[in-house]
Each structure stands twice: as structure tokens, then as C-alpha cells.
Amino acid sequence: MGQSLKGNPRFRAxxxxxxGIHDVFFMPKxxxxxxxxxxxxxxxxxxxxxxxxxxxxNKLRVTAKDRMQANAxxxxxxxxxxxxxxxxxxxxxxxxxxxDLDYPLEDILKYGQGAFLHQSSPRxxxxxxxKLYASSAVDGKKVFRETSSLRITFEGxxxxxxxxxxxxxxxxxxxxxxxxxCCTKCRQIGHSEPYCTNSVKCGKCKGSHSTSxxxxxxxxxxxxxxxxxxxxxxxVYRKKQSEHKRAVLQNTRGLYADVLKSTSSVNPFDNLSLLxxxxxxxxxxxxxxxxxxxxxxxxxxxxxxxxx
Length: 308
Ligand SMILES: [Zn+2]
Ligand SMILES: [Zn+2]
Ligand SMILES: [Zn+2]
Known about the structure:
single chain, four-stranded antiparallel sheet, 7 helices, 24% strand, disordered C terminus
């Protein structure tokens, strides 16, 4: 799992008592989707696959008969070499933000667990820990500054209330809302360049050259049609981002309510088998989270420092 700290994508798997449909998505990576070949191979190697559908030209959805089959398909090197094969993060993991925990990230990954308000609810694994950066524009250039906040990915779909580490708890401040990707190659909003199968398009004039090489006289944002600007300043992009955020928060509340209703002694997130793979993270964020009902009692900063 230390792999995730080096920036390599993590493999995602369906946990043991995931209750939904076991979908695995195929998208182009080193080559375009060969739907015919994939379909033939999947049915042959994985008997019992329930369905294969191509919802979009660049996307194939395979519905496996169970989680073991889905996890095996998503890890199968005969597919992952050529395609981006993945289980959507939103189905199997959840991301939250904590502030000011002066611990090495490796230790949080190793010793941290997600803990719930209901102390009887089983704790869940920490899958990934990353520092959060804030960006600002200095002389027209984007500058990133490290913040004291961390984004922590937990297994399951319910955001824990606290991070439990070495005997004390730190509140999860909020669900983490991923920025929507904007493709630097075709300039479309919603995916990033490594997964782009469109041709190059200029974000300033729609020409077939990269945005940075544009020599057009009138340069306008292709999304909002105003004078050209960075994507983070675009009204169209901002609207999409805030809609996305609202959806994440809404989703979060719904899920939390469900879980409170059905608090049981069964750990729904048990036995998450983490296999290693090379699948890049989907652009679509892994973001379903939960709003805390109220803050849980935690030791103050001093205690944390002393302990550390
Ligand atoms: Zn693109
Ligand atoms: Zn141009
Ligand atoms: Zn714009």
C-alpha cells in the first residue's frame, strides 16, 4: 500500500459485502477499445458475466456475476496492459479532509483507521493519504502552496467521523470534493489528457493545435465565449464544479442517513482485498462522503504533539 504514496494509482476492489451490481469499466489507454475482442475474451475467460454494454464510444461496462469475478477482471493484465480497466472509486471508497495532524503520511497510512460516531461500528482502513495544496495565481502563473490539511481515503462508502490513530481521534472536517478535470488536449471538461481519445483542440480558437501554441488574433474561452482566461476562472467551469460539489454533499447526506438507520454489527467493509495494479485513477472522483452529525470528542493539539 506504500505504493500509493509514490503517486502510483491504486487498484480498487469490491469489498466483501458490497451490495450493488459489480461493474467494471474499460476505457482506452494504449489503444482504442476493441469492443468485439474484449467481449469475446471476457465471456470466454469469465463465464457467468451478466452483461456488457457500451454506454459511450470510449467506454465499455462489464457487469460481473460477483465481486470476485469483478475484482479479477479489473486486475487481469491481458486487459490492463492496453486499456484502463477500473472499478469506480465512488462505489468502494470515500475521501475526507483533516487539519493539522503532524504525523508522517506513511504512519497515518499504516496506523490510522476511520472511526464512526457509533463506537460499535467497526473501524475502516485508510487507503491513501495526501497533502492538500492551495493554488493561487502569481503574475498569471499558478503557484501551489502546501496547506496543513490532509485528504484521507477510507475504504467503504460512508465517511468516518474521525481518524483514529494510536489511541486518539482527529475529526474529519468535511468530505473531499475533487476538482473536475479539464482536458489539456481537447479542452473538454470532464476528463484529463491521459484518457483523451479526441484530437487536439485549441482552447482559445478551437483550432487543431495545442492551446499554448495558439497564434489566433481573437482568443476566446471556448466554454463561456468570453475573453480567454484560465479554466479556474471560467464561469461555465465554475458552475459545473459547484453542481458537482452539491451532488457530492447531497449524496453524502443520503448515504449517512441510510447507514444510521441500519447500524448493524456486521462490518460492511470487511475483507477489502487490495491487489496491486496499474490502473490510473478515474477522473470521476471517488467522492461519495458523509456529513458529520456533530464533532466527536478528541484530545486537543497539545496532547497530539506530546504523544508524537
Ligand atoms: Zn480530451
Ligand atoms: Zn488557437
Ligand atoms: Zn470561460
